[in-house]
Amino acid sequence: MNKDVKNSEKYEKIKKNFSELVYDEVKFAIVTAIQYYSSLNLKKLSELIGRPETTTIRYVKKLLEDELIIIDIEKTATDWGKFYCLSDYANDLIVKRNLEIDNRVDWVQKEASKINFTNEEEVRDFFMRAILSKENLVYDALSARNNLSLSHNIQKMIANEFSTRIEKINDIIEKKGKEYLLNNVTIKPSDIEVYNMTLRVHSMQQLLKLIEVQFKSVQEIERLKLEFEEEAKKDNIPEDDQQLFFFNSFLGSMEFSYIIKNKD
Asked: Which of 140, 192, 199, 264 is the most exposed place for a label (fewest CB within 10 A)?
């Protein structure tokens, strides 16, 4: 068996391990944490995913076997403890997953610009074509579940990090008082904002209006992202002095139903 075939088989195996992360909450949480923090030791990993170190290390070993993470040799040699980072295979699969999402958004926006919003049948036909354009509907459903689990992991990670820091701030208050905190502690830009609501939709035209509003909000965040990056570049702000924020926009129906016109 030649080297290319072996590498191909290895990649397919790692790809399968990556796609199955969605079925293992702890493994997926670890990969998510490392993806966004680049390199982490066991202590920080445990804090972020909200699991004991004994549990975390057990799953870290499994991910090392799956070749989705590797030991960060450089960081481990210069810092305290053993550090872990994503493997090149995992990074490649994440890039491909993100590209699929971007291409999907571009396709929807392009096709949506061609239709007449006031015609319910035309809008309904657009949504059917959007669904049927997907090469594999089962894979697409799994991909959606994967993306939702990713968002859930990041939100839990943020909540765990926030709770840990608040506990440490509270320790300072108990030992030295609020006055000491006000005079000696500077909090970097940090916040958690959550807004949830439900609404009823009875036509495809209404659904399209909702999606349009969602796209516009995402585009506005993209604009701000570029604006903030330019400001940081202009003011020579090091990356370590910039806080990483997570923005997620989710819209989904509580039910998925359909009607078959001709049952023959």
From this structure: 264
| Cα–Cα distance measured from residue 143 to residue 97, given in angstroms and rounded to the nearest whole number | 9
CATH numbers and ranges of domains, the chain: 3-241 (1.10.10.10)
Using CA atoms, how far apart are residues 82 and 79, in angstroms rounded to an integer?
8
- CA distance linking residue 63 with residue 5, whole number of Å: 23
Beta strands across the sheet bearing 40-41: 40-41, 83-86, 69-71
* pLDDT greater than 60 at residue 2: no
Taking alpha carbons only, the member of 68, 5, 75 closest to residue 39 is 75
| Cα–Cα dist 16/40, whole Å | 24
Q: How far is the C-alpha of 230 from the C-alpha of 223, rounded, in Å? A: 11
Its pTM stands at 0.72
Report the pLDDT averaged over residues 92-103.
83
Instruction: Report how far apart, in Å, the C-alpha atoms of 218 and of each of 63, 105, 144 are.
Output: 33, 11, 18
Q: Is the pLDDT of residue 106 over 80?
A: no
pLDDT score for 88 = 93
For the purposes of burial, counting CB atoms within 10 Å of the CB of 172, is it exposed (0-12), middle (13-18) or buried (19 or more)? middle
